[in-house]
Amino acid sequence: MRWQFHYPKRTSFYPPDYDNPGLGGCEASLVLLTRALAARGHHVEVFNCCYRPGIYDGVTWRMTWELDTAPAPDVAVAVRFDEALWPAGSKAGHHLFWMLDDRARGPAAFADTFRGRGGQVVLASQAMQQRLGAASVDISTRLIPLPVETERYTRPLTGRAPICLFASMPNRGLDSALALWPRIRAAVPDAELWVTSGWQLWGFTNSESDDRWHQLLGGRPLPDGVRLLGTRPRAELIEIQQQAALTLYPCRFPEMFCLSAAESAAAGAPVITSPVDALTERVHHDQTGILIAGDIDEYDTQNAFATAAIGLLTDPTRRTAMARAGQAGAARLAPGRVAAAWETLLISRACGPER
Description:
eight-stranded mixed β-sheet; 14 strands
């Protein structure tokens, strides 16, 4: 079947950026899903602000303006924004909207145009469903998780050093992780906190990212035991994730899926995080990780994070059990399985909504 994905955000990227320097969650998911659909025999095209159009892993990446003259596809997927919608007179066989954040504007506009034509909204989490409900968006939905390259996480779970990982965007809670870190270090003197990610994932230059780091850290030295690794090529990031004993993520951001938590589960690094939106779906408390309620800027909440981290770092048996459970749950995120779930959307245009 011929699939077309339209992602009109004015940030230029192309598929090799996934491997180096890396991409944000929405863009990375687009690369992985389209690649997996192509591997399953589909003809897949992506229309975006692609600064180097071409064919990558079987997927044709084209400039967004080319969509105006492209043949009508079997499946038209509007990605994330209302600007991605096909016109009302579109002759595509199936219309889908891929919701990738907490904004209901795009799905609402899609519902107005394509509800009567069997259009469906693909959600990555129940948290997204709640956003649509709060906005009174009436449209058929289907819950399909975002893809993770689970097959690349093969390192053993046992024998890991006391390394904690913070792998999300820095502005989502790194300041709190740094504030509570000395309490962990005092209890586990050889513990280290490795910080990955950076604004390059959003298309910023290295200089612009350095500016953001300076604004966040204020020129202050990092606490003892903290290593700022920044963005890393995907292969290196996967190795780093698999060296971590756990992931430490005090969060204040409305996560609608959280790929960093999903990747940590695949890597066997149990996640200690906040019960914010979809993080309660990524982490099953006391089974695959630990959820810590409360304001991450408050001392008591930070102390609870530190206590939980110390507990896992000093109890390898419990930590390994959580890691195994997390990896088992992450298996369903393999790109091939996610692509197969997308294929089921075409079996019937009368599928009822998932609530």
